[in-house]
Structures are given as C-alpha cells and as structure tokens.
Amino acid sequence: MSINLNISEVAIRENRLGSVTGYQGSIKELAAQASSCSLKNKERCFSQSSACSSGCAQGYLSRIVDAAIVVHAPIGCAADSVYSNTQNKWGEKVRNWKHRNINVINTNMVEEDTVFGAVVKLKEAVREAYRRFNPKAIFVTTSCVSGIIGEDITSVLDELEEEIPIPLAPVFCEGFKSKIWASGFDAAFHAILTKIVKPPQRKTNKVNMINFSGSARKQIVETLARFGLEPVFVAPYSTVEELSKMSESAATISICGTLGSYIGNGLEEHYGVPYVKTLQPHGIVGMDSWLRGLGAVTGKEDEVEAYIREEKEKIASDLVEIREKLQGHTAVVGMGPSFGHNYIRTIQELGIKVIWGATWHFDPQYDNGKTPASTELLASQEVDIPVSVGDQQNYELLNLLNRLKPDLYVARHGGSTVWATKLGIPSVMVADEFSAFGYQGLIDFGYRLSDALTNRSLAKNLSSRVKMPYTDWWMAQDSFIFLENEVV
Amino acid sequence: MSQYSEQVRHVCSLGALQSVLAIDRAVPILHAGPGCGQKLWGALGFQNGCQGSGYVGGHSVPCTNIGEKEVIFGGDDRLKEIVGNSLKIIDADLFVILTGCTSDIVGDDTGEVARRFQEQGKPVIYAETGGFKGTNLFGHELVVDAIIDQYLKPANTVEPGLINIWSVVPYQDPFWVGNLKEIESLIAQLGLTPNVIFGPGPEKGLEALGKVPKAQLNVLISPWVGLKNVQHLEEKFNTPYLHYPVLPIGPTETAKFLRTVGQNAGVEEKRIEKVIQKNEAEYYYYIERSADVLLETRLLPRRFITIADSFYALGISKFLINDLGLLPEKQYITDGVSEEYQDSITAQFKNFADGITADVVFNSDGGAIHEDIRKIKFRSRPLILGSAWDRVLSDEVNGYQLSVSMPVSDRLALNRSYVGYQGALRLVEDIYSIVLSDFQ
Q1: Cα–Cα distance, A151 to A119 (Å, whole number)
Q2: ipTM score here?
Q3: Domains in chain A, please, with CATH?
Q4: Is B296-439 assigned to CATH 3.40.50.1980?
Q5: Which of A108, A177, A394 sits opposite B1 (nearest CB)?
Q6: In angstroms, how far is CA B263 from the centroid of its own chain?
Q7: Quick one: pLDDT band at residue B299, thresholds 50, 70, 90?
Q8: Is B135 part of the contact surface with chain A (CB cutoff 8 Å)?
C-alpha cells in the first residue's frame, strides 16, 4: 500500500482498501475473508438515506480554527454546516473558548451553472473567503454537481494561488462516488497532506492526536506529559500552522482507526512519523495496547507500564462493582467499523454479552495493508460473534433488533438509537468519541449503560404508543433478504 | 439568490422532503445521492428546534443513494426497484418520489417511473426537486403542485365554510405545528371549518387533502410561498383564494387578519368583532400585568433587527412596532425571495403604525448581513431576532438575541406558536426572559 502525494485526488475506500457496505456473517468469517483478500461486497435492492463523503470532509475541515471552506455546490450540500457549527461550539465550550461561526462559503450553484459551468463563481467565492475570513488556508470541497459537469477545480485553484498567498486545497468528495462516507475523511486528510503539511525542519516531542472534538483534552495532555510528550489535537481546533508541522511529531495516535488510517500511515510513509496501529483506546485492553504502542515508538515503555499499573489500581474496585451490575445483559452494537469492533470488546469487558455487531462499513485492511487490529482480536476470541455491514440501513437493523431483542442497543452516528428506543430497547448513543476512553472512561461508560438499563420508562412508553414505519410483512422477513450479490 | 452565501438559512429544493414528512402517512422516496437526506434533515429538522425523525424521517427515508453506476448508466432501474420495495416495506398511504441534482442532470425519466406505479393503482407521485433548481421553499411549492396535479380529484360540490389553510413551510419554520394549530383555532372561532393538511392527527394529512377540492376558499397566509399553489388550485378546481401576506402576530395584525378572512368567507361582522374582543381582552390582561416590568426596568430594548425568512421578518416587525412600541433597525430577509415578490413585501415594511417605516434588505448571505450590521451605530442594546448563526454577532454588538428562524439549533420547539394572540404572548415571554436572564 502506498500513499501517493503527487495526485490531487485520493482513491475511495472501495477501490483503495477493498472496503464494503454489504455483508452478513460472523466476525471470524469476516476476518478470514479480509486476510485472504476474498471479501466481496453485497448490494441492497432497498435502501434508506445514508450519508456521503462531502459531509465528513466539510464537517471535519470546517473546525480548523483559521482555515476556510468553500463548498462548490448547490446550497443543500452546505446544509451540514449548520450541524458543524453546533458541533464546533461544543468543542469551543470544552476549551472555554469564545464562540465563533465556522468559516464556510457556498457557491450556491443554480440551474444555469449546470449548463455553463461555475468556475467564475468559484473564483469569486474563494477570493471572498480570503477577504472575509483572512484564513491561513482555503479548502474547496466538490459536490455531485461540480463532479458530474466536470469542473476543473485543480486548475482554478492553481491559477488563484498566484494572487492569494495561502494554500488553496481541492477536496474531492463528490457524494455519488463512494458509498463509504469515511472516504470524505481521506479526501480531507489528502488535502492536508498534500497542501498543508510541510517537510520537517526538526523533530519534536509532539504527538499527533487524531480525533474530533477532543473532550478528553485535559486528561490526554496530563497523561502524555508523564511520558514527556505533548499532544496536538488534529484536525479540529488546531491551526493551519500546527497542522503544517505534523511531520515533525514523534508519533501519531488516533481515537478511531477509520479516521486515522490515511493521515497516520501517510505521515509515517512520507515523513517517518510512526503511526500507532494498535487497538483503539476504548476500555482496558484497548488503552493498554494503545499506550504500549505509543511507548514502543517513543521509547517510553517503562513510564507507560508504570502509568498503566497506577490507573488500573485506581479503578479496580469500581470495575468489580460495575461488572456485577452489568453481568448477564445482552447488547447489540451499531457503529462505524473502528468504533464498532473496539466497542464490542469494550462492552464485553464490562461483562455484557454482545449478540450482534453491525458496522456502517468495513475496511478489510487499513492503508498499511493490514487488517484492523480490533477485528483480528475479536476473531481470535473463543466465541464467534454474528456481524453485519450496512451503510446505516435502519430497516435491516430494526428488523434485526426486533428479532434479537437485546437488553441494550449501543450506537454511534445520529439517527439510529431513536429507532431502537421506539422498539422498547434502551439505547445509548456514543456521540462523544472519548466515551469509554481508557480505564476511568470504561467505568463511567459502564455506569451510563447501567443507568440506561435501570430506568427503561422512556423506551417502554414510546414503544407502547408509537407505531413503527414498517409493514408487518417486513418485520416478519429475514433481516437480510434484500442483500444480494453485487452485479458488476 | 446570492452569488455565494455564508451561513445556511434555508436549503435546496430537495429539502421539500420535509414537507412530505409533515403529511401524516406520506413518505418521500429520494432519488438522490447518499448524503442529501442526512444533510437536509440535519439542517431543517435536527438542528432546527430539535425536530427529529418522527414517523419515517431522518435515516429512515427511502433513498436510491445514487452512486457512480447510476450516474453513468442512468438510475431509472434503481428507482423502480426502490419504489417497488418501499411499497412492500414502508407502512404509508402516499409515496412521493423526489429527485436530487444527480438524477435531474443525468436525465432520469422519473415521471415515467411514477406513472408505471400509478397505472397499477399505487399511490405514487413525483416532483423534480433537483437542488440546483432553487430553495426548499420553492421545493415546497413543487411538492404541493405535484399533489394538486397527481393526487387530488375534483369534487362535485363545494362545502360552505370549509377553508383550506396554507401558510408556514413545515420544518423550515421550527414552530410550524404550533403555528398551524393556532391559525386553525382562530379560523374555527369565526365559525368556519379550517382544513389544515400538515401536522399530526388523522383528520389532517390525506383526509385533509381529500377535502381540498371542495373548499369554499383557499386562504394563504404567507408573504410569497404558496401563491403559485393557490393560483393553481383556482385554475384547477375554481376555488377562489385569499392571499394574506403577513403572518399575523399580536392583536393589531390578528384582528386585521380575522376581519379579512371573515369578510371574504361571508362571516357576520358581529361575530368577527366578538371573537376579536374576547381574544384582545385576554391578551391585554397579561400585557397589562407585565407592563410594569416591560416599562420600568432599564432593560427594555428599543430597537430590533430581524434576520429571518419573510414570514417572521414581516410578522414579527408588525407586532413589535404596531403592538409593543419598538423601533426597527434594518430588517434582513433571507429566504431567497424572487424579484417578482420583493416590491410587495417591501411595501409592507413601509406601512406601520404612526408612519414608521423600516429598511429591508433581501439577502441570504449571512456573512454579508453580519458585516452590514457591524456598521450600524447602536444607541442602545439591540434586540436581534434571527437564527443560531446570529448569537456570535449579537455578542459582538452587545445585543439580546432570540433564534426564531432556521437554523434554530439552540432551542427545543414542541408545540410553541408565535402566531395570533397566544403566539404573541409566547414571543413576549421569550424575548423578556432573555432580557431578564441576561444580567441575572
């Protein structure tokens, strides 16, 4: 696997990593197919509204504090900026920062633009973004419309770079190109790698911490300080200057394997910054693995071991208590693949039996050519777990949950837990990426699950009064009858 | 529409999927990219008064999730498959296919697909709502027109007193449910039978749609959205329409509204005046009681700005000037009003009590609006009625801010209404709660 920084557009996950959005089987079969490169995607002959690359790319980049985004699209494609702005305020609150609005301009493409093109409009919007926000970099995101009509965005930005003295980076994230919205993160990081990151001048004690909102910021700063390291939270809430120096860092770590794969491996391959490719830091086993991985590449093994010992001692009695409370309960997990496979393990650590794992896509390999460690670990366990892959197809999931009737549904991504709750299943939404982060995080998360199980009145009341939008016919079918072999 | 715009305050035509969701037991089927539904619902629903998925919204909306294959080879077959399976899986009574940019550019024959299902007696209609065609308010009109043309059947008789109500755009207005209920209540007080399509309840939705052709009158309460629809209804079913261009908020405008509707529908003058008198008495009971605080604290804002769609910019201005005695700074209208309607809306802003007028700016570019407001020299703390985007600006200019217009991501809206007498009371409560909590 090689990350090519000489091209302006990174290949989508389906083509680059062989990633899929349609699968049903078990974790052992999935891992076996991944490692033997025999995993085949399946399509669905019914589908519900999913998500696209541009949402991920725009949302992620718009929270860089001194960059601007120009969304080259009809106005609906910039609708997600409303959510991004709310999200941005959440991260500002975590940091006690004054609120600002995110710097996003939309080119407002209209019918005549689809006929005559809109590069002139795009140029003016980029100039205006520079005037309004005085940014240190401008990212231009593409759309289905700009892609289909063939707008030459790279040339436009090359021309503009003569008059605007900051990096102008195209971000190719047309929604129709990939079924895997995480391809949008890769597009964003490709723009950062090719246009923002500079070759290293010196090596520092910094650690690139790839994440979203950084709610555990204080804890991570304190933990890394014990190892003589200092985190740079990437990419939201960082500055363009900080991002440009990622090549100088001592290591890259990520809260999410899906998110971190491209940038982490890219920095390693091109600038020799080691990328920690262990389990993600959810729960005890995950945190052990993640910290040891970091210790190994930074030569801080002893400090890490001492820290791990201390932290485990701190939570020992709480862990016994929460395990007792949760023992014997069952759960279904529905999340992106990295969170999903890491959370299955984490929930098991609390004594809960995971009876199904649904992930929104699956990467049989990351950009280093290896199967995700979290998947391999689950596959190596004695008990096999039934799993499925689907781009958040609620009809499939709801049919499944209705059949399995778990005690708990634990999900990440909006628009999922509400439906399980309507079935009467207490549900927990993991909105914050640092839920269940490490040792204390596991305990806190355990209590959150326990609270959800203790008072089920909302789920009970809703389910007895609210009608689901599915026919009785559908609820009686096998959950996966609409999953069919891909027609190439 | 603006050349470019910052701070989304409306979305694209496909946002009309939310209007379909506002019809009980109707479901949109998107023939669009995988991200369209999520983005549009996120902005108009989730981030706008916390209006959630409801019965079949959010990630449950059927969608073809158009990919590269459909862009290259066309998406008709995929659409047929998704519509066919939607009919099996989703428990609904009306299916509305809505196209996105991709299928409109590629040139899929969506009409043909819909007609095939219609021929089999299936309740499937369609509208071409490719995002590049316009705003979601325009898209809302396209959806209503599609219903008129493809779903409604002519009636044999006219039902006297039956009044169809067309007004705020569902979901774009986070208070639409409450607002429509309030309008319904006002019309009912006149002794008429209001027929409201959007909103919860078995008497709304398809049952209400079924009654549309036999109404005595279509009442459109809107500066411009929906005018084409009521004209279309007149052409098709000979139903006359009354265009009332101001969202009635507060006693002055609501009395005018009741008189206008009552006169047009043939309600006895005595009855109209009785309704007005009763409501005004109740309204002024509360205002009289709160007058001490409104007048005797040093905090009463004197000047206000609206940064809102034309419904609220106009409705709130009328109320704050004509009833509460505030003065207007510039008023910004953000819903992409086309030129043909701008003059009549501007004229309304030149017609307040005591000869007061307000300058109006039509612009959907929030960044440009904020730049403009920063140049205003305020002599006191202004009241800014806008959206969540304006909280940052309000801090900069030391204003009081209340989000009323999309996106209202900083508030939870359930059945609150800002219309009529009750709605005006809610608005006064909300404004002064902000003023009072600001220093405490």
Answers
A1: 7
A2: 0.97
A3: 21-45+198-487 (3.40.50.12380), 53-178 (3.40.50.1980)
A4: yes
A5: A108
A6: 25
A7: confident
A8: yes
